[in-house]
Amino acid sequence: TIAPYKYPRSVKFIDALPKTETGKVQRFRLRKRV
C-alpha cells in the first residue's frame, strides 16, 4: 500500500504540457494552473 501523503491531492487533465524551447516541462506554469 501507499502512504496517504504520497497520494496526489488532485488530478487535472490538460491537452498539452507547457514546454521550453529545449523540450523541458515548465513546472512553474503547471503550478499556476492549479
Keyphrases for this structure?
mainly alpha
The parts where pLDDT drops under 50 for at least 5 residues are none
Number of DSSP helices? 1
Taken as a percent bin, the fraction of beta residues is under 5%
Euclidean distance between termini CA atoms: 27 Å
Radius of gyration, Cα only, in angstroms? 13 Å
Task: Tally the beta strands.
Answer: 0
State the shape: elongated
Give me the strand/helix succession. H
Mean pLDDT, to the nearest integer, reads 92
Q: Helical proportion? A: 10-25%
Question: How many independent structural domains?
Answer: 1
Q: How many strands, what sense, and barrel or not for the largest sheet?
A: none
**Derived structural class:** mainly alpha
Any chance you could write out the topology, listing elements then pairs?
Layout: H1 27-33
Q: What can you tell me about this protein's structure?
A:
The protein is mainly alpha-helical and about 35 residues long. The protein has one domain (about 1-34). It contains one helix and no strands. It has one helix at about 25-34. The longest helix is centred in the last third of the chain and has 7 residues, at about 25-34. The chain is elongated.
